[in-house]
């Protein structure tokens, strides 16, 4: 899962402080693994260096200095590209895919399209595995089947999510 | 809109049952020797699309072209004749005539198309061999297992050397091993005879036997490879 | 597994008998609840069964009403008839009536009629008549009034020149369609053939049925009722497959096999009880229309249709019992598992060994009974038993035969293959229906052969040559003087080609003859010279002359001379009377040769002109005429009858061309035809229902076949073959069995088979049945072949 892309995507709805970003991230995606503030700081400085964000302003009201970050045009393009790019079909993708779907919903991009693209990528992978299975020996077949069943599980998740997009949108972006 | 060199193509099909739209501007195409999976949730209109493509029902509007002929404009008798000669069918269940033997069931489409009994049964026997059910010739469908029955059905769909095979959830009633074997035999046979296959399924692992997949949602077919 | 379940002796808990009864009752009740409250589907099934059973029950109730109907008819018939001891007649009194039978036929219908003259002030009245008809007036039955008022009755009105002044009540009629009149006269005398009547209803007991008729009646009932039974059994099975699926669902929640049977029995019981009610309802409705419906001449008053109590009770008990037994029997071939219904294939074919003995036993019984001659009394019951065993045996043989034949069928075109394979898999329903056809048709053929044999027998016995003459008239009121005029009038009737007529009376030699001797006798013909010249080669003739006419045959001529002794006395008229009338044949009577008449007949014996008889009143002389008509003239028979009625209302006219039948035979034959028609309809209905049910069951398959591009015609033909194969087999068995049985029965009553081709109409009816069932099945078949069946959702 790309934390940088996720933070960038969160910035699309408006400039935020580093601490604010961490809190929003934890709230929406970090149930199991909350971000360290240091992670946010280092990610932001990398993005700043790549010109994907810029410092919108600095505040220091009776405390340490706090930078407010804003996304640049290059940053928006980068988020779009990331969302449009299907993940390489592999097991345990849900967290990334979930993040992508939520971000798409938050930024008014097509979550359904994203899911369809992902479904296609999965199916393509399954087709390749099926082909390999047909030509391979029993060991190949068993290995391929294992992967196929996992991919199928993901695909089912994709389908289920696609069917519940409206519900999810209401929860994520009320 | 209709891709060049396609064997069977549909453009902007619409079909309404009562007030429920089953197809709402669906387009589709398949090439000779190509296996296309039609996927989508229940009630999305995938079976309706298949029935339209096969000329079993006529769409309310839109065009279907098969080998350069306008299918949607043909009278019923001509469409029936086409189904006998050029198409093959596999359904989920309930398609074998229970009182005929398996061999007679496989020979049925040939005989309906006017082939003499002996010749039809000879061809049928060959196909049953290819589908590994050659021992069941004299059995009745009620006496064979689901997987065997479905293989008999596939043999029947192939026996008439069809140009297009329509398979509607062909593995729906089978376990995964049997289902995959049936798919394996079906697609293999179709590829060797250069027949196109339109495969309606909601199972990804079945769809994985296809060359390409089309998703039907809310009565619209999306061909992702082509639009991407 | 299920077999083991069934055989397990008892559940381990050993419930007490009363608890078991409670369970059984609970199961039955559950079944009834399913039948009554099973949603729309359950209701449809129950309703179908009820209607089917109801129709069967209606037929059974109608059949059980026949005894009462016949009793009521014959009681009313007896009530209006008079004592038939012909010799002794009561003395004249204030209540006696002179009555002349003037019955005749009109366009094939019998018109009963009497001319009556009151001899006193208070004449007795026939039943149903309120006032004695005055001279020139008549009272008529409602059916006759209707006929006379209609344009159809125009010719009959000429024959009955009386004014209608009243209607005969139901009490005086056998049936609503009785054509009857009583006309008044003031000139009628006993010499005109009238009989003195002092009261009505003195016919005594009506004749018991002849034994042969008993045999026929028993067979008619069997022939008609077996198919009804089969129909009821079929009706109970309506919708059985859905019921089995529902029972499977019950098995899933823990109901055991025995309980499912009881539940099914409960459902069948409820359906058949509703059927009984429906049948009673249909019967009550149908009986209201009894006097509006005329089936092949049979009609009844609604009040006559009362089921015999013991027969009705039998129906009430037997129908639900049959329903339950049939259901339990049908469930034997089905295993109801919690997860679905398994149809137990017939591992072994139907067996022949217990079927074949039944018809053979029947033939054995018939064979042992042997031939019956007309003179010996007939023991009807063995014959009836034998015939019934043969018919039931045919019905039992048929399922075996259908299976055996169908299993040998191979190949053929697709529709044929579909049909034969279908029959191979399950020929039960088809054979059941066809068994009904077989019994009906075989019985009908056998009975028709019997009728044909008996009626042909009559024709041979009369030896009448209808190419010479078609009518024979006889009257006691036309005398020698006006015989010629009568002949002329008949001759002048339109359509009449030739008439010969004469007045004759028996003449015999007086004297005492022992019982071993034969009294010589001949005929005395009385007529004018012109009439006599027609009959014999007479030269000079004047009134008062007499002749002896010799036939061409010498032996016969000698026999004539034994009575006709010139100058000797001759006894004229009846020989048994108290005072024989003696008349002397003048010695100068010339002997002449007879002249064959226009119709080729010879009139031998004594011939006398009216003057030669002097003042002697000849009693028992009758006018007899033979009439030849041009049969192409429409209604020629009615013109002849009208002329005859004008000459003498009491004149009797026989039509030779019509097959004379015993009235009772005609009734049975009529009943048989009515019944056979109904039975074929009933069978068509039951075949149709099972056909439609089968089609509905296979809607998915039909849609799939349609998807392959199967032509409608292909499936249409397969439906046709599916009906045609068993029906054809059944008809073959029926024709063979019927002809065999008919031949045997004909042989047994010492007659010979007159008509081997009686089965043609039955074959026609069978063909019609096949077409009917197929044609009605086609629209639903085509509807089911549409794509709807493919939609799984």
UniProtKB/TrEMBL annotation, chain A:
Stored Pfam families: PadR
Top-level taxon of the source organism: Bacteria
InterPro entries: Tscrpt_reg_PadR_N, WH-like_DNA-bd_sf, WH_DNA-bd_sf
All residue ranges annotated as the Transcription regulator PadR N-terminal domain in the record: 7-76
Protein name: PadR family transcriptional regulator
UniProtKB/TrEMBL annotation, chain B:
Residue ranges occupied by any ABC transporter domain in the UniProt entry: 8-228
Entry keywords, A to Z: ATP-binding, Nucleotide-binding, Transport
Domain of life the protein comes from: Bacteria
Matching InterPro entries: AAA+_ATPase (IPR003593), ABC_transporter-like_ATP-bd (IPR003439), ABC_transpr_LolD-like (IPR015854), MacB-like_ATP-bd (IPR017911), P-loop_NTPase (IPR027417)
UniProt GO MF annotations: ATP binding
SMART domains in UniProt: AAA
Protein name in UniProt: ABC transporter ATP-binding protein
From TrEMBL, chain C:
Pfam family, one: FtsX
Signal peptide positions on this chain: none
Stretches assigned to the ABC3 transporter permease C-terminal domain: 220-330, 674-787
Segments traversing the membrane: 47-66, 212-236, 268-290, 310-331, 352-369, 381-402, 429-451, 671-689, 727-749, 756-778
Cellular location(s): Cell membrane
Membrane topology listed for this record: Multi-pass membrane protein
Segments of this protein annotated with the region Disordered: 1-21
Domain of life: Bacteria
Keyword annotations: Cell membrane, Membrane, Transmembrane, Transmembrane helix
One GO cellular component, as annotated: plasma membrane
Protein name: ABC transporter permease
């Amino acid at each position: 899962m790309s934390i940088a892309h996720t933070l960038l995507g969160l910035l699309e709805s408006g400039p935020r402080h580093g601490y604010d970003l961490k809190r929003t991230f934890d709230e929406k995606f970090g149930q199991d693994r909350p971000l360290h503030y240091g992670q946010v700081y280092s990610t932001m400085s990398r993005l700043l260096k790549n010109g994907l964000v810029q410092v919108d302003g600095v505040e220091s009201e009776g405390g340490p200095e706090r930078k407010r970050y804003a996304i640049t045009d290059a940053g928006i393009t980068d988020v779009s590209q990331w969302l449009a790019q299907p993940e390489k079909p592999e097991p345990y993708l849900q967290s990334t895919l979930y993040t992508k779907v939520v971000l798409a919903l938050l930024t008014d991009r097509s979550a359904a399209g994203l899911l369809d693209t992902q479904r296609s990528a999965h199916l393509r992978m399954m087709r390749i595995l099926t082909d390999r299975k047909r030509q391979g020996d029993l060991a190949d077949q068993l290995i391929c089947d294992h992967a196929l069943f996992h991919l199928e599980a993901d695909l089912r998740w994709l389908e289920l999510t696609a069917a519940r997009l409206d519900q999810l949108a209401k929860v994520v972006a009320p | 809109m209709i891709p060049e060199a396609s064997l069977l193509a549909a453009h902007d099909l619409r079909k309404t049952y009562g007030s429920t739209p089953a197809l709402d501007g669906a387009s589709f195409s398949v090439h000779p020797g190509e296996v296309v999976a039609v996927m989508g949730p229940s009630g999305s209109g995938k079976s309706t699309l298949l029935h339209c493509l096969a000329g079993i029902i006529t769409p309310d509007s839109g065009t279907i072209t098969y080998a350069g002929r306008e299918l949607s404009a043909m009278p019923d008798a001509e469409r029936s004749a086409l189904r006998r000669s050029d198409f093959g069918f596999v359904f989920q269940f309930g398609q074998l005539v229970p009182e005929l033997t398996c061999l007679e069931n496989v020979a049925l489409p040939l005989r309906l198309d006017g082939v003499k009994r002996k010749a039809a049964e000879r061809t049928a026997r060959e196909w049953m061999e290819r589908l590994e059910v050659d021992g069941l010739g004299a059995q009745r469908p009620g006496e064979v297992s689901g997987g065997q029955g479905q293989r008999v059905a596939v043999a029947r769909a192939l026996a008439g050397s069809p140009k297009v095979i329509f398979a509607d959830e062909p593995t729906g009633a089978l376990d995964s091993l049997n289902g995959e074997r049936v798919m394996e035999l079906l697609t293999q046979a179709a590829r060797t005879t250069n027949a196109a296959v339109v495969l309606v399924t909601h199972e990804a692992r079945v769809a994985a036997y296809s060359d390409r997949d089309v998703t039907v949602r809310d009565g619209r077919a999306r061909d992702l490879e082509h639009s991407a | 597994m299920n077999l083991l379940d069934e055989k397990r002796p008892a559940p381990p808990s050993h419930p007490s008998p009363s608890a078991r009864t409670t369970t059984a009752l609970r199961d039955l009740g559950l079944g009834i609840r399913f039948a009554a409250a099973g949603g729309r589907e359950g209701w449809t099934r129950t309703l179908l069964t009820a209607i089917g059973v109801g129709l069967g029950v209606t037929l059974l109730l109608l059949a059980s009403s026949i005894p009462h109907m016949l009793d009521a008819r014959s009681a009313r018939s007896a009530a209006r008839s008079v004592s038939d001891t012909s010799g002794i007649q009561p003395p004249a009194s204030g209540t006696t009536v002179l009555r002349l039978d003037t019955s005749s036929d009109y366009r094939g219908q019998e018109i009963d009629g009497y001319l009556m003259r009151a001899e006193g002030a208070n004449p007795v009245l026939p039943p149903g008549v309120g006032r004695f008809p005055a001279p020139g007036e008549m009272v008529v039955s409602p059916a006759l009034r209707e006929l006379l008022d209609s344009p159809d009755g125009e010719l009959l009105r000429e024959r009955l020149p009386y004014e209608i002044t009243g209607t005969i009540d139901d009490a005086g009629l056998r049936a609503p369609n009785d054509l009857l009149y009583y006309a008044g006269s003031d000139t009628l005398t006993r010499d005109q053939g009238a009989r003195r009547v002092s009261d009505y209803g003195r016919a005594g007991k009506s004749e018991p049925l002849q034994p042969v008729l008993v045999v026929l009646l028993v067979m008619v009932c069997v022939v008609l009722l077996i198919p009804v039974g089969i129909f009821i059994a079929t009706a109970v099975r309506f919708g059985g497959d859905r019921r089995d699926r529902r029972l499977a669902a019950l098995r899933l929640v823990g109901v055991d096999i025995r309980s499912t049977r009881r539940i099914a029995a409960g459902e069948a019981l409820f359906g058949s009880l509703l059927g009984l009610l429906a049948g009673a309802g249909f019967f009550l409705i149908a009986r209201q229309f009894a006097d509006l419906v005329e089936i092949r001449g049979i009609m009844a008053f609604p009040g006559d249709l009362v089921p015999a109590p013991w027969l009705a009770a039998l129906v009430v008990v037997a129908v639900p019992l049959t329903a339950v037994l049939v259901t339990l029997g049908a469930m034997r071939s089905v295993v109801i598992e919690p997860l679905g219904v398994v149809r137990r294939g017939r591992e072994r074919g139907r067996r022949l060994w217990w079927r074949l003995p039944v018809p053979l036993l029947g033939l054995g019984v018939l064979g042992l009974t042997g031939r019956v001659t007309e003179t010996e009394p007939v023991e009807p019951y063995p014959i009836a038993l034998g015939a019934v065993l043969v018919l039931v045996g045919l019905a039992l043989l048929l399922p075996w035969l259908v299976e055996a034949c169908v299993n040998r069928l191979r190949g053929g075109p697709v529709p044929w293959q579909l049909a034969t394979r279908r029959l191979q898999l399950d020929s039960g329903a088809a054979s059941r229906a066809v068994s009904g056809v077989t019994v009906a048709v075989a019985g009908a053929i056998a009975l028709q052969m019997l009728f044909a044999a008996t009626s042909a027998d009559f024709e041979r016995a009369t030896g009448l040559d209808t190419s010479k003459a078609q009518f024979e008239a006889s009257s006691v009121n036309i005398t020698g003087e006006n015989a010629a005029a009568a002949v002329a009038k008949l001759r002048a009737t339109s359509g009449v080609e030739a008439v010969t007529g004469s007045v004759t009376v028996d003449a015999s030699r007086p004297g005492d003859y022992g019982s071993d001797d034969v009294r010589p006798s001949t005929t005395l013909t009385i007529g004018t010279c012109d009439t006599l010249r027609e009959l014999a080669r007479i030269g000079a003739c004047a009134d008062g002359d007499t002749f002896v006419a010799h036939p061409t045959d010498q032996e016969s001529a000698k026999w004539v001379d034994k009575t006709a002794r010139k100058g000797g006395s001759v006894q004229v008229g009846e020989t048994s009377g108290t005072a024989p009338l003696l008349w002397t044949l003048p010695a100068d009577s010339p002997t002449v040769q007879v002249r064959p008449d226009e119709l080729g007949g010879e009139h031998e014996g004594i011939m006398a002109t009216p003057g030669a008889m002097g003042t002697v009143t000849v009693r028992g002389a009758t006018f007899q005429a033979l009439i030849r008509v041009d049969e192409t003239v429409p209604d020629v028979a009615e013109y002849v009858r009208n002329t005859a009625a004008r000459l003498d209302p009491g004149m009797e006219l026989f039509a030779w061309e019509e097959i004379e039948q015993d009235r009772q035979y005609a009734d049975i034959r009529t009943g048989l035809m009515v019944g056979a028609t109904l039975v074929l309809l009933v069978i068509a209905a039951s075949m149709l229902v099972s056909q439609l049910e089968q089609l509905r069951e296979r809607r998915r398959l039909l849609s799939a076949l349609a998807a392959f591009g199967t032509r409608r015609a292909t499936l249409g033909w397969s439906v046709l073959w599916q009906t045609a194969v068993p029906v054809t087999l059944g008809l073959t068995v029926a024709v063979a069995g019927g002809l065999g049985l008919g031949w045997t029965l004909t042989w047994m009553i010492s007659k010979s088979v007159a008509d081997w081709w009686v089965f043609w109409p039955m074959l026609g009816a069978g063909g019609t049945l096949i077409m009917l069932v197929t044609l009605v099945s086609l629209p639903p078949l085509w509807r089911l072949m549409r794509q709807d069946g493919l939609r799984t959702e």
